[in-house]
Specification:
Layout: H1 2-11, E1 24-28, E2 31-34, E3 39-42, H2 45-48, H3 57-67, H4 82-94, E4 101-105, H5 108-123, E5 127-131, H6 140-144, H7 149-152, E6 162-165, E7 180-186, H8 201-212, E8 215-219, E9 243-246, E10 257-261, H9 263-266, H10 285-300, H11 307-317, E11 325-329, E12 332-336, H12 340-352, E13 355-356, E14 358-359, E15 367-368, H13 377-398
């Protein structure tokens, strides 16, 4: 549909000069269909947002049921709305005790904003520490924590009092001091190339935080809700954050974010001053209904338990001379190549062959593989066959 693409390019603000520009007709399961009837096997899942694929029937049913009752009725925190209350209660049932209260917002970046405000309120301190090559969102505070200067220099001045440490570098932990309000880390670094913590890194960060009275904020916007083979990524690493940040895959395809902490900490947002954090549409009942059903299905159908075997299959099928290594965990995988040119070719050739892949923010020599968690074994084999065909083509072209 040429006119749709032209209108997209003309009227909708873009994030890059050259978007992929597929004109979407509909999406179902692990597939996206364009306006010309072409199908694409989706190895992106809305950048880890569509946890159970596209238009999962139980999530759609939950959305429809709620839309027949009520939509938005009041700003966050004033009325008791069943889907939002039940979602927060369900989260309390699966999270550690110290993460018993949840504040629902509209996106991951908004959750980061709320989390850093809470940390400042709890500690009475101003300094924040983040990691080089981190990505926590693009709003002003989240951008201040972003660990790639080229991405934020055009928007300075940003928040003051932000320091950066190298992820997995224990020598940098001495930068965490009695001036530090919070250390903000992705449990698994996303934009950096799905970099996992090594040598009990997160436990050692938490120990350092505890010793100086700082809080640990873990960003599970990408790694949460089963993506790594546990409900939350921190469960792999023997650490519990003081504040947990969620988003993306939480909503089953609808926009949502949240941050969780102790009742004691979260109560600080309600007084001195009142409205310490406020949102109009956070906890939207329709979105909450979708998120609740997403979580219920993940648990009841034991989908998370299938992730380790699916990861093993991906790693087995993608052994190829072109692939130097595969970073990540679960269905959050990043094959790494020798050059960014190879990564670009893989993404673009895959699109032509009906497979959706995407790039990573900072690690340009890698590609993202983050399919729906309920992707089938047959679909994994199909997608990997396409990838290996492309790898072989690229090798032949280089000879």
């Amino acid at each position: 549909m040429k006119s749709l693409r032209e209108d997209f390019l003309k009227y909708q603000a873009k994030t890059t000069p050259y978007p992929l520009g597929i004109t979407i007709d509909y999406a179902k399961g692990s597939y996206v269909y364009d306006s010309d009837g072409k199908s694409y096997l989706d190895f992106i899942a809305g950048v880890s947002a569509c946890t159970l694929g596209h238009c999962h029937p139980k999530i759609v049913a939950a959305i429809k049921k709620q839309t027949n009752r009520y939509l938005h009725v009041m700003v966050y925190g004033e009325f008791a709305q069943e889907p939002s209350v039940n979602l927060a209660k369900e989260l309390a049932g699966v999270l550690p005790k110290k993460l018993e209260v949840t504040y629902l917002v509209n996106s991951g970046t908004e959750a980061i904003e709320g989390a850093i405000k809470l940390a400042k309120r709890v500690t009475g301190r101003a300094e924040l520490i983040a990691a080089h090559n981190a990505y926590h969102g693009s709003t002003h505070g989240a951008l201040s924590l972003l660990g790639a200067e080229q991405q934020k220099k055009a928007y300075r001045p940003l928040l003051t009092g932000v320091q950066f440490i190298q992820f997995n570098d224990l020598n940098d932990l001495e930068k965490i001091t009695t001036k530090t309000a919070a250390v903000v880390l992705e449990t698994i670094q996303g934009g950096a190339g799905f970099v996992t913590p090594k040598n009990s890194y997160l436990k050692k960060v938490k120990k350092r935080c505890d010793s100086v009275g700082a809080l640990l904020i873990l960003d599970e916007i990408q790694s949460g809700f089963g993506r790594t083979g546990k409900l939350f990524g921190f469960e792999h690493y023997g650490v519990i954050p003081d504040i947990l940040v969620m988003g993306k895959g939480m909503g089953g395809g609808l926009p949502i974010g949240a941050f969780s902490s102790s009742e004691k900490f979260m109560n600080l947002l309600s007084e001195n001053p009142k409205l310490g954090h406020i949102t109009t549409f956070g906890g939207n009942p329709v979105v909450s209904a979708a998120a609740l059903e997403n979580l219920v299905v993940l648990k009841k159908e034991k989908i998370i338990e299938t992730i380790p075997e699916k990861e093993k299959l991906f790693r087995k099928l993608l052994k190829h001379p072109l692939v130097k290594q595969i970073n990540g965990k679960g269905l959050m995988l990043a094959p790494l190549f020798e050059t960014l040119e190879i990564a670009n070719k893989v993404v673009l050739k895959s699109k032509e062959k009906g497979l959706l892949l995407f790039w990573l923010l900072w690690e340009k020599k890698a590609i993202r593989i983050s399919p729906p968690l309920n992707i089938s074994i047959v679909e994994i084999k199909k997608g990997c066959a396409i990838l290996n065909e492309i790898f072989d083509e690229i090798l032949r072209e280089s000879c």
